Structures
1.
Amino acid sequence: MLFSKKQKKTRETYHVPTHIAIIMDGNGRWAKKRNLPRSAGHAVGCDVFERIATYCRDLGVKYLTVYAFSTENWKRSQEEVLAIMNLLRKYLDDAVNTMEKKQIRLRFFGDMSRLDADLQEKVRQAEEISSRYTGFQANICLNYGGRDEIIRAARQAASKCMAGEWTLDDITESSMAELMDSAYIPDPELIIRPSGEVRTSNFLLWQSAYSEYYFTDVLWPDFSPKDLDKAITAYNGRSRRFGG
Ligand code: IPE
Ligand code: IPE
Ligand code: MG
């Protein structure tokens, strides 16, 4: 069930965003409510990602960017970090088959150099193998921070200038955008944060300049296609002026 009757009527005027971004938050609280270890929340969160990615693809969304692990999340207990990394390992091992079945291109945003070597290699392989699928792309943010991304881009720009490849005038909004992890991908029209927190937590700082935000109290492991419909409906009611 995709649209309500009323929504079906206005289907022609209903705009599905090209790029949706989601801060997948609330796994820990979901687990706590059930007296389960936090890792159980992350495991269910991983399945929900699969389900929502497939739903986005079916809706005609072109890009889905999800926040899976931030540059700040290393501050968590060693046990929790290890559980998340092992979940990622398992996800990447399965990803090759899943991506083929679903025809999903996978890309990873963030600084992969801090991940274990085997994980870096699995990430590289998943990107390479899925690069032939052009219909829908999921970007997974791992060891990602918006500030870190801007710093990495600034360093690249500075080294181009020092090498004489660029002059200062070559540093523009569009040339900097191409140095971000999201190079050549349009900015997200809609950013969703479940779990009741109302902050960006260092997500897509550069790309979110004119994104519409949607916040909901639903915890990520409970987030369903219906909740995504609600977010898209809210987005459709927004008046985007871009300062004009
Ligand atoms: C989001 O869920 C997943 C990661 C940050 C890895 P949390 O683990 O932050 O869950 P809460 O916010 O503590 O409920
Ligand atoms: C943001 O959630 C990061 C991810 C969902 C991966 P956090 O749970 O880490 O953010 P804070 O601590 O609530 O700001
Ligand atoms: Mg959280």
Note: The beta strands are 19-23, 63-70, 104-109, 136-144, 190-193, 212-215.
2.
Amino acid sequence: MDRVLVALPMFNDVLDRLREHFEVLTTPDGPPDALPPLAQRLHGCAGMLVAGAPRVDATLLAACPGLRAVCSMAVGFNNIDVEACTSHGVLVSNAPGVLTETTADFGFALMMAAARRICESEHYLRAGRWSDWRYDLFAGADVHGSTLGVLGMGRIGQAIARRGALGFGMRVIYHNRSRLEPAVEQALGARWVTKEELLRHCDHLVIVVPYSAQSHHLVGAAELALMKPTATLTNVARGGVVDDAALAEALRERRIAAAGLDVFEGEPAVHPALLTVPNVVLTPHIASASLPTRRAMANLAADNLIAALGRGAHAGRPPTALNPQVLAPP
Ligand code: GLV
């Protein structure tokens, strides 16, 4: 029986599904530093179930020659070197689709919380500082009828655009390397603009681009300087797409009004300057965290692992493989 490592805490019923096909090693809870090195835990394993961590690269693959599949329950896969996996014959899968609407809900909520100063005002209330009603008490920016700027127009970007256009009467502009089909643009009421136009004209910027060497610090000091002082920025993509130090400075100097961040450079560490500015809502990478969605993500990763290792009804045909060519018959 093949052995697999589930390299993250996992739903019991998903572990039970995997146990129908494999000997399953789990990762005890605890700080990652206290665990034996990953290559050691992977010894003798044919597959591994992961999420946005750990890093899977050529060094790890060389140390684990028996590994045949790495299946992630995240949609973003910047922690996995797919090219290196392909050249080692290791199947890689991610979990697209199942988290789109849940993540879009959260991105929208974070944008609204930033625009309407919900967390900042709650902290004020909890601190016992609320003594009167004032016309300008935590007055923020309107969301309805404003201009939504979406940076990255994949599935999640489109779901956010739809919420803005149909639910809140927002004008939607977007920037993406490739333009959407005109019919899709029309259905979303979205207009493609250059990155510079996007930054200059949006009232609320929502960032949803995958992380890569090309998107590293896609929004830094120069880009923030183009934004309106009343604008908000929300990042539900990946840490590193935004230069967090430059953002903290722009927020502190009120060069933009507010931000909502679910992802951070070097997370779970958070840039200390972000912790000291009041006009930012900070959440611990939970945009896809509704229980039904997390369960769907985990089950999709399990489906991929079972199929990639030649088991179950879809043996040899993992549903969301990123490099299915490694399973192609010779
Ligand atoms: C979460 O960040 C994911 O990529 O699924």
Note: The radius of gyration is 22 Å.
